[in-house]
Design a protein that fits this description.
Layout (H helix, E strand, L loop, with lengths): L2 H23 L21 H14 L6 E5 H8 L3 H7 L10 E2 L5 H8 L9 H5 L1 H8 L2 E3 L7 E3 L12 H4 E7 L10 E9 L4 H19 L2 H34 L1
Antiparallel strand pairs: 1-2, 3-4, 5-6
Length: 254
């Protein structure tokens, strides 16, 4: 094999390796994971879902939780919304369009009411995963032994009352029989009082909210998905062109 042929072979191998690495780096839904977690089905590429999730967040969550790494202006750009739409529907604190999303709840009062200040949710999905957040939102139940009246199977003894109860309704816990030396555990949750949404509608709503929080955790993912597709197409086209060049080169050699 000549030096030119060897160089061409190495170049084509490099293109194939780059394609493999790029495709392998694209996010995929894990098939495994803890059995207790529900599959969220969150999709940051679904702009309509992100818009619905944003509406839910600002109607039910912003009272306690901030998104300090997200700005109203960036959210408008990524979600396909105008400045007027964002400022009229999502801004309840009088913030400027370029300001970060900060809750209007005073931290001192929050600590007094809940025992600790509610966490910022900018990186919640990044830290715990979309499936965990989705499961948490679907796992609140009435607990007469809790000081706030609510509990959660994904995060037992959570200090947070359930903000979406009017949408889902109220769930009750069916307990497993207590064994010797063990406390009773939750076997399953049942809907004891319906809410404004059907169970399917509520699951879609929490999926939308999870998608929005997943986007907030990594806004650049939207651009990465967009550019990644074009990079792959470019590399495929480049590989095809070099394959033609190789074929033409070998024709002259033979």
């Amino acid at each position: 094999m000549t030096k030119a042929q060897t160089t061409m072979k190495h170049f084509l191998s490099g293109i194939a390796l780059a394609l493999g690495l790029l495709v392998g780096s694209l996010p995929a839904h894990a098939e495994g994971g803890p059995a207790a977690l529900m599959k969220s089905g969150a999709d940051v590429r679904d702009q309509a879902s992100l818009q619905r999730g944003a509406r839910l967040f600002f109607n039910y969550c912003i009272g306690c939780h901030s998104l300090k790494y997200m700005r109203y202006s960036r959210m408008a750009e990524d979600l396909g919304l105008t400045e007027k739409e964002v400022m009229q529907n999502f801004n309840f604190t009088g913030a400027n369009f370029g300001d970060p999303v900060i809750s209007h709840m005073p931290a001192k009062l929050a600590k007094t009411w809940f025992g600790k200040a509610p966490p910022d949710l900018s990186l919640e999905v990044e830290a715990k995963g979309a499936d965990w957040v989705y499961t948490y939102l679907n796992s609140f139940y009435l607990d007469p032994h809790s000081p706030i009246g609510w509990n959660n199977t994904a995060l037992p003894n959570a200090a947070m009352p359930f903000p979406l109860w009017e949408l889902q309704g109220m769930q009750a816990a069916v307990m497993k029989p207590a064994k010797d030396g063990e406390s009773a555990a939750v076997q399953k949750l049942v809907l004891s009082q319906p809410g404004k949404m059907t169970p399917a509608q509520f699951q879609q709503a929490t999926r939308d909210l999870t998608s929005f929080l997943q986007y907030v955790s990594e806004p650049a993912a939207l651009q990465r998905h967009h550019y990644g597709i074009w990079v792959i197409l470019f590399l495929v086209l480049l590989t095809f062109l070099f394959a033609l060049v190789k074929k033409e080169y070998w024709k002259d050699v033979h």
